[in-house]
Specification:
Helices cover about 35% and strands about 15% of the residues. With about 270 residues, the chain is α/β, with parallel strands linked by helices.
Length: about 270
């Protein structure tokens, strides 16, 4: 029977985010609890049930609870700025629209994936007025924004928010214009890791994706591999200081970033 030690080498390849890492830890704990007297089919069934419960409690039900809290913060006349694409943020905005709240959405996007285009398509299809800008225009549109809603890939123990690269810039600009920054994050994404920069620990995406253009023409750095002193770095995440975040909405409560250690210590994150 496969044990936790067998999962370690394979899990190292997929633990790219804190949320994935917490799920792997949960799976290892459940595997260790399985009795060696069980048949393989029964053991697999128990493990599958445990994984299903994890997803139901920590993702589906947590998302519904966060949505209920976040929708209350959307008021008529709001102009809400979001960044790229987040299923949780989209669900919140669509639910607010379903409750007949009148608001606009400012979608800020950045290369190379341009996932904000999908956010615009879903929101406009639901009848929500949207504007779409690149991140370099964020300072120009920020004066029209009433609040900022961001998603997080992880909330670190020192209160820093790990999110898609560019999130920290959005937070900094929002703070400069005195706009409230609301981060929506499930508690299973809380991490005991401590980090204050984006260099010590990060994930690198395909550097060639940074070279893609609309007309697919070559760029001045298309032959970067032929230059021995040139390297393209396509970072996936960055860290946002807690001073730039107004509040974090979780399924258990609305908390400041600095409450992350309290949530971890009290066992809100179940492994």
């Amino acid at each position: 029977m496969i044990g936790p030690s067998h999962l370690h080498n394979h899990s190292e390849a997929v633990v790219s985010t804190q949320s994935t890492g917490n799920f792997i830890k949960h799976t290892k704990v459940q595997v260790a609890k399985i009795s060696p007297d069980l048949t393989e089919s029964v053991a697999k069934e128990e493990l599958q049930q445990s994984c299903d419960n994890f997803f139901r409690e920590n993702i589906y039900l947590a998302g519904k609870s966060i949505t209920e809290k976040a929708v209350e913060r959307v008021v008529d006349g709001d102009t809400i700025l979001i960044y790229k694409k987040s299923q949780l943020i989209l669900h919140i905005l669509l639910e607010a629209k379903a409750r007949n709240k009148n608001f606009r959405v400012m979608v800020v996007d950045s290369r190379p994936d341009l996932s904000g285009v999908q956010s615009c398509e879903r929101l406009t299809a639901a009848g929500i007025p949207c504007s779409y800008v690149y991140i370099n225009s964020c300072t120009y549109v920020m004066k029209k924004v009433t609040k900022v809603m961001l998603a997080a890939d992880a909330l670190l123990a020192n209160g820093y928010v790990l999110g898609p690269v560019g999130t920290a810039l959005i937070g900094l600009i929002s703070s400069t214009y005195n706009k409230p920054v609301i981060v929506c994050c499930e508690t299973y994404k809380f991490s005991e890791r401590v980090q204050t920069d984006s260099i010590l620990y990060n994930e690198l995406a395909d550097p060639d994706s940074m070279l893609k253009t609309l007309n697919e023409e070559d760029t001045p750095v298309s032959n970067w591999r032929d230059c021995p002193n040139t390297r393209l770095v396509n970072l996936v995440y960055d860290t946002t200081p807690p001073a730039l975040v107004s509040i974090v909405i979780t399924e258990i409560a609305e908390l400041p970033c600095t409450s992350a250690p309290v949530v971890l210590r009290r066992g809100a994150v179940k492994m």
